[in-house]
């Protein structure tokens, strides 16, 4: 379904890859093309707008890791935002609670409710080992109840026996009773569809919902209807409340917009995708897999992730070696400070490092901002190589010279030297820790006074 969007995006990013260093303009014009591609894929305009804005904000001014190409960074950012667009608290079906759990299936006519009900029953029986009962509440279309019965037989799942002239509510009551007395884990209720959303339909579903108290109310929507599917979901959500969506016919030639707009327009997460007419063609929805499918750049994304890990590793290894030798001079300190500034300064690194929340306050109270970082670096760069290698030779006159060279005060220099001694002590203490733990503490140690 995403072929055309996917190939458009691929060619946009291929073009970007041919540039050497990316300027803000390069990124902006590439994103302009991404915008058009998304709109052509029938993604809703407000969704496209905020998507592009978010990506742009992050892509511009982003520090690029040395081992990757800037365009790869942009691809990674687009990929992450695609996942965010699709995801947001995406959860699996809620199957916790006292049986029988009720799952209510709703949707417009022909969206695939009955087929999907059987597909879901099949998953619940064979993958989740549940005892499942199905009931069709569709008394309007001739043979609708029979259709579910036939599907049920094909997968050995029981359906509630058909009694002519019952109302949907009566069938619901009977189905609830049977599932209780016969010990079913899950009761799936397949409802009748309507051509359009009308009041009678909403009232009927509301009544059924009030009676059956479903744990999950799933809207089955046809991906081929594009943006409409997202708006239908929004209306159902407002009128009766949904817990999830199942997007069917994604095997068709729909342009994919529905899947991308769904979450932000309706506020309801996609849970499954219908990928064909056959009973086993139902996939659990994985935002990351879909993002990969759309972007077709899984390799680039993992490359960037690896590069992000590598700078950690290289730095950790370098420091580990220093530690083994028991030496940590001002060159090493400068290196670590530069690494921090390369990673986007104090603020950037705070978002990158796990467990940083704890020292965030410390940094603020200590008044350690990016200006401070630059000042420390300029103090060190005003030193001679001997001084950097052995700070103990820094007597009063050397300190005076450095302070005037770096435009700082003697106190600033003393502070830096104290910090270096603290770090040195800490390094020795931490010799026993693993590399990873060391890196984290090493940087954290910079901030503790
Ligand atoms: N290609 C494809 N066809 C599907 C998919 N899901 C359902 N269908 C087909 O869509 C048609 C309608 O499916 P139903 O399950 O009867 O739809 P419904 O929503 O129950 O329809 P009503 O009860 O009349 O409202 C059938 O021919 C299904 O085989 C899917 O994911 N892919
Ligand atoms: Mg049906």
Q: Overview of this structure, please?
A:
- The chain has 449 residues and is an alpha/beta fold.
- The protein has helices at residues 3-18, 24-40, 45-59, 70-86, 113-126, 144-154, 168-181, 199-212, 227-239, 257-266, 287-295, 298-325, 330-342, 345-352, 357-365, 370-381, 385-389, 396-406, 410-429, 435-447; strands spanning 101-106, 132-136, 158-159, 186-190, 216-222, 244-248, 270-274, 282-284.
- It folds into three domains: 3-86, Up-down Bundle (Four Helix Bundle (Hemerythrin (Met), subunit A)), CATH 1.20.120; 101-286, P-loop containing nucleotide triphosphate hydrolases (Rossmann fold, 3-Layer(aba) Sandwich); 302-447, 434 Repressor (Amino-terminal Domain), CATH 1.10.260.
- An eight-stranded mixed β-sheet has the order 3-2-4-1-5-6-7-8, sandwiched between helices.
- Strand 6, helix 10 and strand 7 form a beta-alpha-beta unit.
- The radius of gyration is 30 Å and the shape is elongated.
- Magnesium ion binds at residues 113-114, 138, 144, 190, 193.
Q: How are the secondary structure elements laid out?
A:
Elements: H1 3-18, H2 24-40, H3 45-59, H4 70-86, E1 101-106, H5 113-126, E2 132-136, H6 144-154, E3 158-159, H7 168-181, E4 186-190, H8 199-212, E5 216-222, H9 227-239, E6 244-248, H10 257-266, E7 270-274, E8 282-284, H11 287-295, H12 298-325, H13 330-342, H14 345-352, H15 357-365, H16 370-381, H17 385-389, H18 396-406, H19 410-429, H20 435-447
Parallel strand pairs: 1-4, 1-5, 2-3, 2-4, 5-6, 6-7
Antiparallel strand pairs: 7-8
Helix pairs in contact: 1-2, 2-3, 3-4, 4-11, 4-12, 5-6, 7-8, 9-10, 12-20, 13-16, 16-18, 18-19, 19-20
The structure holds guanosine-5'-triphosphate and magnesium ion.
């Amino acid at each position: 379904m995403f072929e055309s969007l996917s190939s458009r995006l691929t060619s946009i990013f291929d073009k970007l890859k041919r540039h050497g260093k990316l300027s803000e303009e390069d990124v902006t014009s590439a994103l302009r093309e991404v915008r058009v591609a998304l709109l052509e894929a029938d993604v809703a305009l407000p969704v496209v707008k905020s998507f592009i804005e978010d990506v742009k904000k992050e892509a511009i001014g982003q520090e690029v890791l040395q081992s990757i190409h800037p365009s790869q960074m942009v691809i990674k950012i687009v990929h992450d935002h695609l996942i965010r667009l699709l995801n947001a608290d995406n959860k699996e079906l809620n199957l916790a609670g006292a049986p029988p759990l009720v799952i209510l299936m709703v949707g417009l006519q022909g969206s695939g409710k009955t087929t999907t009900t059987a597909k879901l029953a099949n998953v619940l029986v064979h993958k989740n080992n549940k005892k499942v009962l199905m009931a069709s509440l569709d008394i309007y279309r001739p043979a609708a109840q029979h259709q579910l019965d036939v599907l049920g037989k094909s997968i050995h799942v029981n359906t509630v026996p058909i009694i002519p002239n019952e109302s949907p509510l009566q069938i619901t009551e009977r189905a609830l009773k049977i599932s209780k007395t016969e010990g079913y884990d899950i009761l799936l209720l397949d409802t009748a569809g309507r051509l359009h959303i009308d009041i009678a339909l909403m009232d009927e579903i509301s009544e059924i919902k009030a009676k059956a108290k479903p744990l999950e109310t799933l809207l089955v929507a046809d991906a081929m209807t594009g943006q409409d599917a997202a708006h239908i979901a929004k209306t159902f959500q407002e009128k009766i409340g949904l817990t999830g969506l199942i997007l069917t016919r994604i095997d068709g030639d729909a342009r994919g917009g529905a899947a991308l707009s769904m979450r932000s327009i309706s506020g309801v997460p996609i849970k499954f995708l219908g990928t064909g007419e056959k009973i086993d063609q139902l996939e659990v929805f994985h935002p990351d897999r879909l993002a990969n499918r759309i972007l077709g750049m899984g390799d680039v994304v993992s490359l960037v992730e690896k590069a992000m890990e590598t700078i950690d590793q290289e730095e950790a290894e370098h420091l580990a070696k220093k530690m083994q030798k028991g030496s940590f001079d001002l060159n090493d300190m400068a290196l670590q400070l530069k690494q921090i500034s390369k990673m986007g300064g104090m603020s950037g690194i705070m978002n990158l490092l796990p467990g940083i929340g704890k020292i965030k306050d410390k940094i603020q109270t200590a008044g350690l901002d990016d200006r401070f970082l630059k000042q420390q670096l300029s103090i060190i760069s005003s030193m001679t190589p001997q001084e950097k290698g052995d700070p103990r030779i820094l007597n009063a006159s050397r300190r005076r010279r450095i302070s005037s060279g770096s435009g700082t005060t003697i106190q600033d220099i003393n502070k830096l030297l104290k910090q270096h001694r603290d770090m040195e002590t800490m390094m020795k203490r931490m010799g026993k820790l693993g590399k990873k733990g060391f890196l984290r503490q090493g940087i954290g140690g910079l901030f503790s006074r």
